[in-house]
Design a protein that fits this description.
heterodimer; A: alpha/beta; eight-stranded mixed sheet; four-stranded antiparallel sheet; 9 helices; 12 strands; globular; B: mainly alpha; 69% helix; binds adenosine-5'-diphosphate; binds iron/sulfur cluster; binds magnesium ion
Chain lengths: 340, 299
């Protein structure tokens, strides 16, 4: 799944399945019965392109807005601002609205919690048939059942599992069922919100292998969300590192993983055991907690925890800027490199 | 699972029933409850053939005759007679028709409307929810019997009015339970997944959410059934429900209260039948809830 070398220019290719520009999502929360609603900026100005067969990894600590991005991408919630184009079609969605049929067929989501994502009252077959029933009136009942059985085998379960209820399955099996359901309408994009975080290590590897196989077979594009870099390293083509709702470093996985530039990315990496013994051994400790979204610090949101922070960092939120042709970093102390 | 299920193809209605029955009958209490209720139902249906006397026939020579096991008792009146000489056993048998039918209708009416309102309130929230919950709070603010009495008085006394009144009084419990269950399930991932698969509001409410909210409602239905029997009785006693000489259990109980000390049988047997029926229905409700819950199934 490692990327074939892509063109160096940053102009969007026209085969992008997702074209996201400055996606932003704010929530209004009440902090007390008498105080005015506060704004939580759960997601700030995320931009990226995703191509067929590619995997975009989104990494960051818990609470940095990864699931919010997933909900915006899958049209569960509309963005507060920014533009989302899926498969060449602009998404115009109002709060509480269902995504239009031709778009919801293209994007599907896998949730983190395999125990909440399956309807306890429905058999596996009923769950897999539902998307066909609701979207493909041309498929007969027998064909639906047939397709469901095929998909069950494709994700590594057995046909006799079809008529069982979710509680009879383990976490890994449930995640396979969720994957099967997501694939029933032949989507182009799968948004995977920490799909293996709730699973045992050995099961994680199996599910990741399954995802790789399915990606190759169907040419799927993945948005793979994780807080665990070791999971993402194996499969990512591109990476977005998020902190406090905003991307702080983006670029090809090959560059970001071999040479993390943003102090936050470096800190994340030193917290992750890596296989490569040649990597420089300097350890950057990630201390403290992310700031409260209700009380953002002045300037760079990472400043209170950053080992490179200077007084200057508190003056303004550093914008995401290109430091190499393909890597962008939001930090005033990271120099531009190379000939641009 | 028992071996009998292996012969039936999975996915069919018959398979589901066989499976359901397997779990239901595994609970002894539920089975006893079911047998009891089924017996009462059969007896009620066959009342003209099994009842020894006309339930309204007054025998002037036999006021307050004690049951057969007393010295003064006679086989003619196995459970004795009431203050106007009517056979208690026959009245109980005919009374089953009224008590069970009325209560079943009340629960059905209340449950269907309550579930519908609760689903709307929990699913759509907003002004609709405020309206529905406020209306239910108003119903709950009155003592239930007082409200039922008032409603019957407005609707004119009689069986239908009594049924509607008691259904209204029971309504808030169904609405509240449904709304709470819907609110806790609504944002679960499986519901979102169904929405993304293209399910509309109606399908989400009735196909996705409702089956996952049924367990507490079934238990509430059995509780309501017993309350309905008692409330109908109370209304009958106050002259606002079933009109005499209809042999309704609660009315029998109420009418015989003054003879509690001298002729216990006139009070005891209707009371005992009500108590047993209520108990058996509750037993059945527990079994039903367990059998309908896939989480309780062994794989
Ligand atoms: N529906 C919501 N209402 C208010 N705040 C929310 C909501 N969803 C998420 N948030 C807030 O947005 C931030 C990002 O959350 P989330 O996207 O779930 O992070 P992650 O998935 O990376 O752990 C958190 O501070 C969270 O409290
Ligand atoms: S801008 Fe300053 S505080 Fe923010 S990451 Fe860079 S060095 Fe750290
Ligand atoms: Mg999350």
């Amino acid at each position: 799944m490692q990327s074939q070398e892509r063109q160096q220019n940053s102009a969007p290719r026209d085969d992008a399945v997702i074209h996201a520009v400055n996606l932003t999502r704010h929530y209004h929360v009440r902090t007390g019965p008498f105080s005015p609603p506060a704004v939580v900026k759960a997601l700030n100005e995320a931009s990226f392109d995703l191509y067929p067969g590619q995997t975009l990894a989104v990494v960051g600590e818990s609470g940095c807005g990864k699931s919010t991005l997933a909900r915006v991408l899958t049209m569960i919630e509309p963005p507060t601002s920014g533009q989302l184009t899926i498969n060449g079609q602009r998404v115009e969605l109002k709060e509480g609205q269902r995504p239009p049929r031709e778009l919801r067929r293209e994007v599907q989501i896998i949730f983190q919690n395999p125990y909440g994502s399956l309807n306890p009252r429905k058999t596996v077959a009923a769950m897999l048939e539902e998307p066909l029933k609701l979207n493909r009136s041309d498929v007969s009942a027998e064909q639906r059942r047939q397709k469901a059985l095929e998909m069950i085998e494709k994700v590594g379960l057995r046909p006799e599992h079809a008529d069982r209820y979710p509680h009879m399955f383990s976490g890994g099996q449930r995640q396979r069922i969720a994957i099967a359901r997501a694939l029933m309408l032949n989507p182009k994009i799968l948004v995977l919100d920490e799909p293996v975080s709730a699973l045992d290590l050995s099961i994680q590897a199996q599910v990741l292998n399954l995802l790789s196989d399915l990606q190759d077979e169907f040419g799927l594009a993945y948005v793979f969300i994780s807080h665990d870099l070791s999971v993402v390293q194996r499969i990512a083509d591109d990476v977005i590192v998020m902190y406090f709702g905003q991307p702080v470093e983006t670029g090809p996985a090959s560059e970001v993983f071999t040479r993390p530039r943003h102090p936050y990315t470096q800190a994340l990496f030193s917290a992750t055991p890596v296989a490569d013994p040649n990597r420089r051994k300097e350890r950057v400790k990630l201390k403290g907690e992310p700031p409260s979204p209700l009380n953002p610090p002045p300037g760079c949101p990472f400043a209170p925890r950053c080992f490179m922070a200077t007084e200057e960092c508190t003056h303004g939120d550093p914008p995401l800027e290109a430091v190499t042709p393909r890597v962008k970093v939001a930090c005033i102390h990271v120099e531009k490199e190379g000939a641009i | 699972m028992s071996t009998s299920t292996t012969a039936v193809a999975p996915g069919t209605f018959r398979y589901q029933f066989v499976e359901f029955w397997g779990y239901f009958s595994a609970s002894r209490g539920a089975l006893v409850g079911l047998i009891f209720i089924a017996t009462i139902l059969v007896v009620a249906l066959l009342a003209p053939w099994v009842a020894p006397h006309d339930p309204a026939l007054q025998n002037r020579e036999a006021f307050l005759v004690p049951p057969v096991w007393h010295a003064e008792g006679t086989w003619r009146y196995i459970l004795g007679t009431d203050a106007v000489g009517r056979d208690i056993l026959s009245r109980l048998i005919y009374g089953a028709r009224y008590s069970l039918f009325i209560s079943a209708m009340v629960v059905l009416l209340s449950m269907v409307i309550g579930i519908f309102l609760g689903l709307l309130a929990g699913y759509f929230r907003g002004w609709l929810e405020t309206l529905i919950t406020r209306a239910m709070d108003v119903v709950l603010a009155f003592p239930s019997l007082l409200l039922a009495l008032g409603l019957v008085a407005v609707l004119s006394p009689g069986l239908t009015s009594a049924m509607i009144a008691i259904a209204v009084v029971q309504l808030p419990y169904f609405v509240r339970l449904t709304r709470a269950a819907v609110m806790s399930e609504k944002d679960r991932e499986y519901v979102i997944a169904s929405r993304l698969a293209g399910a509309g509001h109606t399908r989400l409410m009735f196909n996705t959410l409702l089956p996952n909210c049924m367990a507490p409602l079934i238990v509430q239905a059995t509780l309501s059934f017993s309350t309905a029997i008692l409330d109908i009785a109370a209304l009958g006693f106050l002259g606002m429900g079933v009109q005499p000489p209809t042999p309704e259990w609660g009315a029998m109980l109420a009418n015989a209260r003054e003879f509690m000390g001298s002729a216990y049988w006139a009070v005891t047997f209707p009371g005992l039948v009500i108590l047993l029926t209520v108990l058996m229905i509750n037993l059945m409700g527990d079994g039903l809830r367990d059998a309908l819950d896939p989480k309780m199934k062994r794989s």
